[in-house]
Amino acid sequence: MRYRPISPALLVSELTERITAITGRRRIAVAVDGAAGATNTTELADALVDPLRVAGHAALRISANDFLRPASLRFERGKEDPDSRYSDWLDLGALRREVLDPLADDGSGLVLPSLWDPVRDRATRAERVELPEGGVVLLDGEFLFGAGLAFDLSVHLWLSPAALKRRVPDAWALPAYERYEREVDPSALSDVVIRVDDPKHPARYEP
């Protein structure tokens, strides 16, 4: 693979241009995918909000971490089970129903910004937000690809195996990330791949 070094500011600028160039969609879904705690998915998604608004697009930030299943389901096989983290933690059905389906051309545009508070382990009772035409949902999280979720632009923050082992905060979860890489190959499914072994000096994959 060939990677082009890119500053964080230029990365945000290029992604903003890529998003604003999407046509033929009433509303746009963008996913920023990467290992939790080891990549800066949240920071990158946050950084896109203001440039998109300046470009005339309403932007709504959503975290997949607010669409996790209740603890009784996530931890049914223990709190440190990598297979559960990979396949059972994220409520894919709710994310599809409450966030992505409303963005479809025949969708209502009414998006639920959060569903479940994983810290308090209870529903957030958030109100739906009406996203106007031309609006963009910026969703960040892990294991977002390969599960049938529909995105208009997919961004994957990739770590080399050595960097992943060095930076992932939950060492017990490493088999989940290895399984994701092996079974899904998120880089192959993504529109944009960014190597973030050094988060201050990212590099963009050039095919």
From TrEMBL:
Query: What's the name of the protein?
Result: Uridine kinase
User: What species was this sequence derived from?
Assistant: Amycolatopsis decaplanina DSM 44594
InterPro entries recorded for this chain? P-loop_NTPase
Question: Known SUPFAM superfamilies for this protein?
Answer: P-loop containing nucleoside triphosphate hydrolases (SSF52540)
